[in-house]
Amino acid sequence: MKKLILLSSLLVITNFIKAEIKPCISINTDNVQLVLKVKEDGRLYQTYLGEKLNDKVNLNNLYMPRGTVSSVCTNGNEIYPVMGTEDYFDPALEVRHSDGNPTSFLKYDSHTEKSIEGGKETIIFLKDYLYPVNVNIHYVAYPEEDIIKQWTEIFHDESEPILLNRYASSMLYLESDDYYLTEFSGNWAKEMHMSESPLTYGKKVIDSKLGTRTAMLTQPFFELSLGNPIQENSGETILGTLGWTGNFSFTFEVDNNNQLRIISGINPSASAYLLEKGEKFVTPEFIFTFSPEGVGQASRNFQKWALKHSLYKGEEDRLTLLNNWENTFFDFDEEKLTELFGEAKDLGVDMFLLDDGWFGNQYPRSGDNAGLGDWEVTNSKLPNGIPYLVKKAKDTGVEFGIWIEPEMVNPKSELAEQHPEWIFKIPDREPYYFRNQLVLDLTNPEVQDFVFGIVDTLMTNNPGLNYFKWDCNSPITNIYSQYLKDRQGNLYVDYVRGLYNVLDRIKEKYPDLEMMLCSGGGGRCDFEALKYFTEFWCSDNTDPIERLYIQWGFSQFMPSKSMCAHVTNWNKDASVKFRVDVAFPCKLGFDIDLKGMDKEDRQYCTNLVKEYNRLKPVIYSPDLYRLVSPYETKHCVLERVSETKDHAILAIYDMHPDFNEQLLPTRLQGLDPDAEYKIEEICLMPGEKSNFTFDGRVFSGDYLMKVGLNLIGGKDMDSHIVELTKI
Ligand code: DGJ
């Protein structure tokens, strides 16, 4: 009933604007504005993007580009430029019509505006006046979080299918003397490495062609600073990302007017899409924010928005866990697992997570070369099956979660023998194996049913199961689908749609289920996937020093409760405390042999889990202040402040300080200047006392933000957690 009332009130406030006079359309948040204008030629142009203008500005007076307009860009800044116009730079849309004509012109027809939950949606209807091709551009502006998202719908009424050679989600234009682009590249165990470079005339492309493990080499995020290299607390900064769990592409092109064009969307490479009459091609969402005060504010915008409007169960709690992967790898049995349930309970975590290696009978999964695809428990290893383990875990007092990799198959499996037609494989060619496995053809609805069935069967047989770790270790290899036949250009796109179809069904049937998105470490992480997953695995690299960089990278966009961080044995030169403290400000887990630890370390872990549970509200706050950067210093300091500013924590890491380094006080941020805060070092090793001179004392927010505290020190791999409580 409530829903109905809401829906009808939304309908009432929907405005439908038809184009008699040439309209000016403004997409606003509280602090950001994007202005679009229909010009005399009936086409739609961007005339402004930046800090919100005040009401006195006549938007009709805006024009862009403001520099000298050369003949190759006569009208400038069309919001969805099409191949075939006088704009000779990369277009957003390229259509080959059914008669073979590769050109189009899009004119403004009308637009609507309506309130939606948390924001306002504007839809602009564009049409080709020669061919029956329609393009609807959607914008949703979230005022409080200063986030705008944009996507496009393309459909047609031509007699035969049309071929979409390019189909961007969005095209944006910026004007500045200089542009600095930060990208997030890497590889397995090196995810999210940040690097910045200036953009000059010509193109820079950040893209992926890997399909499933799409972000293994580069992640679908970028940061752009106007005028100067990026700063944490100053400068005009744009952060952008694509919500798409497949091949993506961002093209940054500086044109002859020194204007920057950003095209974001699915990577059209090897993906010319055949679109049937009446079918609607919906592009992924391009999501961006603009901050006049540097990247710190932009990250807080993203984290706030993600928690409220994007991440699955964004405003709910998260489970701490003990995982067995790095402790046992494939070598476990029922006895070993039940013993680990007890250890999880003693540690105080909420859940035990059983990783890879529990399935396959004809081809048991005792290594990564067999069994994938055969989702039946290995009887010889676990004779009483998963139901027994779930019950036993619950009886011990912990929840039970389980690992799956449902999109993949080992050639050495019953599934591969029974359904070779379900696998991407090129006829008559030798297959290429990535981690000894192949990718299932999720463009095929039968395969979608099979993949849904894996989760469904496990859930039906084990209603007590409440967590999955969903892994995906291979990119799409052997790029050919038997199902798609002569529509191979649709493969990469339809694969992702097939995956979303499965995930939609899971979410609908099991809304309480929590899932971790994993892809051979952090090879898959985007905001569309995170509409289904409560969290993601950042990397298999848990060396605490290297992890600080990886977490620093993801924190640019992602809320802490979505970033799984586990304590392991990577880098045993670092103390257990240091390793635990690095995982502490994220979504905490352990993947380590607890019995192998000495008593004090184990006690530290148990105490820390208690502290973590107590401090979850502030750890999960979106208000992150990155105070000291590991990229610029030998230290890293992070501050999380509660939204009411009455509680904060500092996570302080001295990585590898220089000899006799000059150590200055660190100024805090985001506090209430008029409030008094009590400062205490917490999470100390058993029996240890704090050496900080400020420990136990009270300071005003003003003092802390203007004078600061001596937080960083000179000891190698040393860490501290400090709590601030408003009194
Ligand atoms: C890759 C993941 O990143 C690991 O955490 C682990 O689950 C393995 N796969 C299991 O094969």
Q: Percent range for helical residues?
A: 10-25%
Helical stretch count?
Answer: 12
Instruction: List cofactors, ions and other ligands.
Output: (2R,3S,4R,5S)-2-(hydroxymethyl)piperidine-3,4,5-triol
Q: What overall form do the CA principal axes indicate?
A: globular
- Poorly predicted tracts of residues: 1-13
- SSE class: alpha+beta
Spatial extent as radius of gyration: 27 Å
Largest sheet: 11 strands, antiparallel
Q: Taking all residues together, what is the mean pLDDT?
A: 95
**How far apart are the termini?**
44 Å
Oligomeric organization of the protein chains:
single chain
- The counted number of beta strands is 37
Which band does the percent of strand residues land in? 25-35%
What can you tell me about this protein's structure?
This protein has 727 residues and is of the alpha+beta class. Helices cover 20% and strands 30% of the residues. The strands form seven sheets. Strands 1, 6, 7, 8, 9, 12, 13, 15, 16, 20 and 21 form an eleven-stranded antiparallel beta sheet that branches. Strands 22-23-24-27-28-29-30-31 form an eight-stranded parallel barrel. The longest helix is centred in the last third of the chain and has 21 residues. It is globular, with a radius of gyration of 27 Å. It binds (2R,3S,4R,5S)-2-(hydroxymethyl)piperidine-3,4,5-triol. The site of (2R,3S,4R,5S)-2-(hydroxymethyl)piperidine-3,4,5-triol has 11 residues, from loops.
What's this entry about, in short?
The chain has 727 residues and is of the alpha+beta class. The strands form seven sheets. Strands 1, 6, 7, 8, 9, 12, 13, 15, 16, 20 and 21 form an eleven-stranded antiparallel sheet that branches. Strands 22-23-24-27-28-29-30-31 form an eight-stranded parallel beta barrel. It has a six-stranded antiparallel sheet with strand order 32-33-34-37-35-36.
